[in-house]
Amino acid sequence: MSELKTLITQELAQPVDPRVAAFAASVAAQYGEASRAVLFYGSCLRTTELDGQMLDFYLIVSSYEAAYGKSWLVSANNRLPPNVFPAEHDGLVAKVAVLSENDFHRLNRISASAVSVWARFAQPSRLVWQADEAAKVQAIDAIAGAAVTLFDMTFPMMDIGTEYTIADLWKRGFELTYGAELRAERKDRSDSVVDAEPSRYARFGPAVVAAIAERNQARGKNLEIVASREAVEKRWRQLRRNGKMLTLARLAKASATYAGGIDYLAWKINRHAGTDYVIRPWQRKWPILGALVMLPRLIMGGAIK
Fold this sequence. Notes:
By secondary structure, the protein is an alpha+beta fold. Helix content is 58%, strand content 12%. The longest helix has 29 residues, at 229-257.
């Protein structure tokens, strides 16, 4: 096992609040034998604050057909992954994103059309429920692609002739990913993610570089052709366009899968951007139209970018 996968294995196994593990088990139980793994990530993991917060889970399933049966949700998850649902357990609330094992692996790789999955799993996460050892191994393998993708997409964006630390590379990478989505976070959020656990990123950085070197060596290349900055900048422009369009499309889809989704959106924006946007009754009745009205105002006001 590579050093990177060893670090990921150790990190995924770190203990969490027992209420989180119980919550994850209840989520998995809803999908029966289709459930393969539940991952816990995000701000609640970083701060360990649970009460009054919205926890973030990814539920990994064997396939969408196994998870939903004969339902329109299969097509929705295939066409625009992930599907996102609200969940409650023992006084805690969460949003649960559902991905198949194949999509989880694919969306952590550089070929993904948006940054949303690999940007999140380049950050810390915990494996809080697993169906078996094979599910754990597949989750580790998928997550190992996230930080590698981040570094592959960040190296060419660093200025030539300037010395950088590993922390600088992580921060620049997260800054680029935050800019590739409609996000409500402060401008310094990418720095604060790394600064919240600097020793973690210091350990993982060299392991990611080693994994990239091992990958290139395994391909048997004597000459490594590095993408030009111009080519990578073009790719980032593409990812920014895709990310913002996908955010709107997923919001529209969430109006059918996520009761109260527009209230959650407003809560998250207010929490991270320091705004006080209030959802009106008509916006709850017509959430897609309500969101379309809300988003331009927030963008023009600088609350989201």
